Amino acid sequence: MADLEPVTLQDPSSSLRASYVPGAGMICTSLADNSIEYVGQRRGLQAYVSDGKTMGIPILYPWANRLSANEYRVADTEVTVIPGTHGVRADAHGAPIHGVLAASPDWQVTERTDNALVAQLDWDSDQARLATFPFPHRLTVTVTLEDRALTVATAVAPTRDSSVPLCYGYHPYLTIPGVPRQDWQLHTPTMRHLPVDDRGLPTGEAQPWPGGTMRLGSTELDDGFDDVSTGAVFTLSGGPHRIEVAFEQGYGAAQLFAPAGDSVVGIEPMTAPTDALRHGNYKMAAPGSPETATFSISVV
């Protein structure tokens, strides 16, 4: 049975706190200033553990969002993933979605202080994970809460002689408490828009995205992007509240998600666009050269 005991981090310079549950996929379940919560709770932690219904800030690994088929190829390695086996989940159209680590109990905490947490997961010791992503490596997540910012650094270190495709991401569900959704302001940087079809998969087209600020109103979003610059900042604000998501390094793609029926916006850092594992447009972590990607969420 999964250990759902949270680890709470305290910002030494403010009243901001963050809670993580390493035993449920190393998910962040709260980012709060006193009683003011800034991450969406949606259906809650238990639904995430039992049904993979996302909430908080989950990691999407080893691929973010959807694959367009149940097969992919990396160099000479051909892989078949089967929804319902080895942790693979499917969306409403049957597409494999969000990787295989939802609520995984296998994370091991290696370091903990009042405002920092380090957890690791070994990918070379689990045959089920290797069946879906046969690239042995060690995954390390380091989170730090300081100066009103939660910083998340994710390192991928190959443990054998094969490189590891980098197609993962995170799904921060952010919310502005006490302000109606229609009055939220969303600011995005200049990047490239990747339109999707009715299954949520990229069409292959690309369009310039000038960025700027928009009032959310009744807008629904589930849109992909690439050409996101290092250091790019996305902002969600309303009333006295402002949340900034900075793609500090390693995240050249993004997904924006704003469902009509829920007062959350997902500003998702991704190391590669949706379906990259099928199309090869990703970077690799080479043996002896770990790759680290970092993003931060600041509450201003």
From TrEMBL:
Q: Which CDD domains would you find in this protein's record?
A: Aldose_epim
Q: Which InterPro entries match?
A: Aldose_1/G6P_1-epimerase
What this protein is called in its record is Aldose 1-epimerase
Please report the organism this UniProt entry assigns to the protein. Answer: [Mycobacterium] fortunisiensis
Q: According to the lineage, what is the superkingdom?
A: Bacteria
Return any one Pfam family short name: Aldose_epim
